[in-house]
Amino acid sequence: KVHENFDFQDEDESNIQDQTFKEFLFEDTFKFILSNESSTSSFIEALQKIYGSTLSKDGTSHREDEQCLSLEEINSMITFIKELKNLGQFELLFPSAAPKIQTFLRDLYHMVDPMRRLGSVLTVHWLISSLLEQFQFMTKEAHTNLPEWRSKKNSRKSYQTIMKWLKPKHSSEENMSPKQNVPSDFRENHEALHYSSKTKERQCSYDKDTLSHIRQIFTSPQLDLNPQFNPKIKEYYAEVPFDMVTVKIGAEPSNCQSQVHLDEKKGPSVANYPLGLGLNKVIILVTDDSQPSPRVVSSYKITIYREDRPSLPLFDDYMMCGFVQDCGSRIRPEESCGLQPLSHEYLSAISQTVFKTCEAGDMKGQWIVPCLSCSDNRTCDWREITWQPHGCRYSVLAKPELQRCVEGRRILFIGDSTNRGMMYYLIERVNKTLQEWQKTHDVKCYHNINEGKTFISYSYYPQFWMNANQRPTFEKALEQLLQRSRPLENTEQTVLIVGGVQWLNSNHLQIIQKVLNRENLSNILVIIKSIGMGFHLPVDGIHSLSQAEVQNLWNENLIILNTAKKFGYEVVDTFVITMGRYKEFLQGKCGCHFHEVVKSNPSEESPHITMTLSRHYTLGKYFGSQSKPSQLQDYATNSQSPYHVRGPINQVYSEILLSRLCASKRELVST
């Protein structure tokens, strides 16, 4: 018997058995009302255009040529879904009074749930709410910029994406074998949904006291927040292992008039975050949307500490292992990946007491590290890892030698934040201290280097935050840097260092040559920092590279290096150094930063980010006696410096930069 105003007792008074009976009743009611027969509706045809799939009766999908959904079709679906939501949660069970809704439901359920896996009314309600939110977003995007919206592949969901919401309630990742062939994003989205759906109540509150609160935080993979979530507690902490490089974070407001946004006032309510080594901060803003202009009423902060590689101390009984690329991201599929045992012949060759100095900054090499077993990277002492070029070594200059090298020189940097990190490393090495630091996004000049004997300037390029038609060209940015850095000699006393993550190409090198010839600076020393690993993680808000695009970076890098040497420029190959350690990035959405500047005052610094850079990172175990390690360690632990450039991978290629910067000076001394 069905009553018109069907309801249950208050959930607080119901026991587990009552809840179980309620769910069974809902499920049986769905099966009773929703027949197996399905009509072909305009709604399915419209969905096929979004998903780019043809859905057969058995629920499988087949890709077709991508098509675009018209605004009329989107608005029609929004009207359907709004009607559906307006019926109310329990009246969803009895749609006979609205034939359009009944047809809509049959078609929708048959398409997304051919195996009858719907777990509960809450799951269905969440599915419909998510569809409505997606369609409203799509129509908003379409009205704003229809051609651009139509070109976005990620605006279209596939049949498999819808099925993320429909996983049976009683299955969980704990019961799933890690070797099962289930896409990670399938599990992650279901986790977030399941966590959200199992909340006692889904409906928001109009109580003013809840205006600044969030109801819950959901994460995938699930984080162990400390303390446990409470709407009145605003700060949380979590730790994650080294191999967790991203996390999806979302939140839900407590109040009906509030919205949540991640990181900024207009940010999303759910986003995928990269997790750099060390500390990562996520800010959740709560806004009051009851006014025409929403205002921020509170903020929550989650601090996530990502651990370094698992490492064992160096034992006497160890073997040396080498690697160029990680098996998690094979840049060169035809070459080996992961740790490989090093032969006795190779170890004998690199342990010679007399070793020639590398003649270029792109010498082939590999990372070597001591391990108990090369088949298990958890048995390695990663503190002792070193970059070892084949057949030569890069000298590490002592402070007096480096100061003599840069004395009287004017050193100009142009590039992005990775280029800026190398500049600050140079300043700290020369001065033995870093007195000032800022994330410069303009032109900045430093006159206090090497007791005023060295001038350094920096120009940020490209200015990606500006509109393309307002953004200064590389040629204009370079000309401006040269003008701000004058007077400049047309000799190697003037140095130009150019590079970044992945914006640089051979065309920029031709522009450099053209501008320098025009400015009568064709004889200055030019050093090209090649591209580096980055943008390889699926992160919201930035363009992420596919695996094929990441692999293509190898060829792009070779073109840059060869073109630079053809023009007579020095090079520093940062791609071959970063590609094997792509998981060891530090903070930043791009996953491309292998340095960060930290406060070096021990009394103020968290123990998590205290680091003493070891000589082994640059020199290798076999060359420490030749390369004046004490000076490098003294620089790294200078307690008088208010700031310190941290990052062992950045240290490696920055030291190679210094070796190229001073190569001609060393040749003059030797002759």
Automatic annotation (TrEMBL):
Residues 387-511 form the NXPE C-terminal domain. It comes from the Eukaryota. Residues 223-307 form the Cadherin-like beta-sandwich-like domain. This is CPED1 protein. It comes from Eurystomus gularis.
